[in-house]
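Justification of resources, computational component.

The compute hours requested in this renewal are based largely on the per-chain cost of generating structure records like the one below. Each record pairs the submitted sequence with a full structure-token output. That output is archived, and it is also reused by downstream analysis tasks.
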Amino acid sequence: MIIKTPQLCLNRRGLLKGAAGVMGLSAAGANLSFAAGPAGKKLVVIILRGAMDGLNVVVPHLENNYYAKRPGIAILPPGETGGALPLTTGFGLHPALPGLAAMYANGEALFMPAASAPYNERSHFDGQDVLENGTTSALGQLDGWLNRALQALNISPGAIGIGQTVPLILKGAESVPTWAPSTLPAPDPETVDETLELYDNDPVLQAALQGAVDVGALIGDLNQLGTGYEQLTRAAGKLLAAEGGPGAAAISLEGWDTHANEGGVSGILNSNLLNLDKALLGLSEELGSHWANTAVLIATEFGRTLAENGTSGTDHGVGGVSFLLGGAVQGGTMAGDWPGLNDAQLFEGRDVFPANDLRSLFKGVLRDHWGVDVNALNTTVFPGSASTAPTENLIV
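The structure output for this chain reads:
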């Protein structure tokens, strides 16, 4: 189901399909009624669609080959004008991410470089499918690992998708509604009341429509939530923080395919990162006291080539970078292994070697933040993955 606020363009099929996700909403208090999650712990998964260039985000500034292969777009070392923000030895953060850098310094963020789902064919569609279905192949499962993780819990905390459609990561047996901002004008309140009355003899449709109205009341004026990425994350934060709100949200942020005009401290990537930084700060603000019990996973389908191309951009690669942040995170560190960027260390002579399987990161969060059983992680959440151990020491 798509919950679009503040308008009423909801079709009957969509309402019936997702009604279970919102039937318990209370009109009087605009509170949600998802099942209580594991100790009130929240999980947000943000997918950066298009393959973010991890090398210009978490900058390996002690690698000579990084500068040799990127003479026009490399980010200078910390301390230089326009240089990276310092992280740990050998790594810095793109200067467009000061909010994220502050989280890292405060022990609330960590980074996993050279990270990838078990996929190396460089197709956006297949790469995103593998990232979200939790297997080793496109179409390996028709549902998503986050939906299967919800099913593996004794009491599902429920989830909501932020976007026009339910992303694959949330598809499955567990009913999941979605919310998307509307571009249509708000309906007259009298029209809303009359429409609800029309459904007096159809309790399922009436409850679903009332749910959409209540979600709109919770989110409030979209103009007060910023634009772009920030609007989506602030809306998610409001829903997660609401009384009876869901335990999880999945958010898709588009626009990370930077074949041309990627740039260094200017260009498309810089603009996207400025917006992402604002969005992450907005999410933490809307979560309020819930931030202390929140983990935010940020992943992309794959990385990009070490060498820049002829149009000030980069092409599809393999190893990328993933983030984990939130008040529940044991941050201020780097996770996983770093394979290096010498020519002999590259994957197929061109890409960052995928030294770290993203399923390990996801497993570590699901096990230690939500308490998902390791056997379930190995067999149903990420089928056939027993040889991929959960990453340790991710959660406080």
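The radius of gyration is 21 Å. Residues 268-287 form the longest helix (20 residues).
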